[in-house]
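User: Predict the structure for this protein chain, please.
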Amino acid sequence: MSKRDATVRIGCDSMVATGERTAGGKTIFAKNSDRPAEECQPLLMAAARDHEKGARLACQFIEIEQVEHTYAFLGASPYWLWGLEHGVNECGVAIGNHTIFTRDPVAETGLQGMDLVRLGLERAATATEAMDVIVSLIEKHGQGGSGHVEVVWPYHNSFLIADAEGAWLLEASAGHWAAKKVKGGASATNHTTIGTDWDRLSADCVEHAVAEGWWQSDAAGRFDFAAAYRDSDAVPASISAARYGATCAALAPAGAPLDVAAFKRAMRDHYDSGEVFRPGRPPEDEKFVSVCAHADPVGTTTASMVVELDADRSRPLLCWMAFANPCISLYLPLFVGAGIPAEFEQGGMAATDGGAWWRFKALLTEVEKDFAGRGPVVRDFWREFENGLLEEADGLLAAVGDEPPSAARSARLSTFTEEVWRRASAALDDLLRQLRTG
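Assistant: Here is the predicted structure, written as structure tokens:
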């Protein structure tokens, strides 16, 4: 890695709605992972495992103690990392992390935010347990280590953590943190948003802020975490303000109850141009970076996830994953604990390493040659395809949802995903051929 440079690398937006705000009465979680535009982000499916007592675990930069049992999970991970940008486990816990800028210095080593996402999924059966896992690890080992392969760029993190019963927003500055129980809906982006509305604080959170001169010991009113810890000098507030406004607006209680399709639209949002990106905004425009980001080197969306979380853990857990920018891609149905196509887990530094991610990246490259002309065509093509997948997945869940978990049911779910990918892969080839030949 080179020394930390002046280019600010930010990204990631998440949103969650709890059952009182959704059409089906279930929690829905979504996240866009914004990373360097050429960084492949394949999927990772891990099985549940038992571990020897006293075993050690190598994370990205440090080694920690292993637990005796880890849960199965499905997630998305930059090709060179141990941790995850976002994911969901077999218990129906979903987690995503986000870069945030605070006044505490960031350690050159420690647990990455992406380490903590994976550790939370491996070790927790509920959202509250996952939050407890993450904060205990932060307090013991600290946050740190570069989140980028080409530069030294460690950063602090926030986490949106959800299950069928509800969700938490957690924002952490070094080993200090605030957490808020989600009421109806919440968004997370690249700045601290928890003010005086916190439900839990780390033990020394207020004392540390007072000692550093960020908060007055005799200040009137409740402690304001964002006012004390947020660093607005490192990154202009405008970088994330518009994106945060867009996801909050998508969660607004007015209008029809939210469903999975609404969350997919929100993850594809480009402000006034909707699901189709229109290039041309200058970098100083606060809407230069959209929820579906096309703003390299600041941040480009390289993976996306939408999942509806069911309280009945015996039912198949369906997760929708997209490679690259979701506006030119499609959300593919996968089931946690069932098999996934080999191409989904393939991918490395170069396109020659293969994998589904690089194929969708090739589609994005073709669309970028004429976004105004090609973007709407590709979006319309995948919209029809994806609507069909929603109906097929609903039909499959209706057919097998009441069956007890079994190897036969898992095989049926895996076969469905493989068949969907076979058709989507052929459609992707046809679409690329049409674009390349004009």
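The radius of gyration is 21 Å.
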